[in-house]
Fold this protein.
Amino acid sequence: MRILKYLMLKLLPFVYAITLITVVWQLVIVFTHPHPSILPTPWATAKNFITLIENGSLFIHTGASLGRVFSAWLLSACVAVPLGLIMGRSILLERILDPIIELFRPISPLAWIPLAILWFGIGEAGKIFVVFIGTFFPILLSTVAGVKSIDPILINAGKVLGCRSHFSLFRKVIFPAATPNIMVGLRISFGTGWAAIIAAELVAARSGLGYLIANGMEILRADHVLVGMIMIGLLGVCFDAFFRFINRYLTWQA
């Protein structure tokens, strides 16, 4: 009962937001009378949402987008977290790599899409590459910041209590202490990757939520576009809530 009450309290703001958006949406239609191909009614969009669920196409497009994002996100985490841990402890390595990182970091993942198409074609590798670029830097910088924020007394205590090797020190002290910062980077990077994959699918894809939106634009089906946008928003909220829960759990454990 407590869990149900907790979920209701958490979902209540979103219910208010959805209600307000729907009311404003309907008022715009009432007063402007747009063509359905430009702006369908909330009811028509809801019916199309249900239709795409029933025929399975919405699950196919959502699964394609999620698969690409998770693949690139996990790949970037496997590279960025170890590199960030080492950079946070090695001043020399940080001085060598930091200028390179700062040159590439401001470049939007969207700017890499043309090169991704030229290098990898319109297959999966190009989309994963774009998302990797978008997710790599937030994870790396958060990991470095997490390592640098560790109290030196904690590291010295680890050495005194038996962490004789660098690997043992990283495993037992540095990585656990930097985990909250790493989780923040993972959370931020997933949102960045989610935005990047949608943009990549708008340009070069035959499946995914980005493709659903782009195809809806081409065939003048605004309801398809809106369904894709709604699905992106719902999944974004769910993943953000998941990462908040994990981060809170790790904080409690610490």
The CA atoms of residues 182 and 197 lie 22 Å apart. The mean pLDDT is 84. The radius of gyration is 22 Å. The chain has ten helices and no strands.
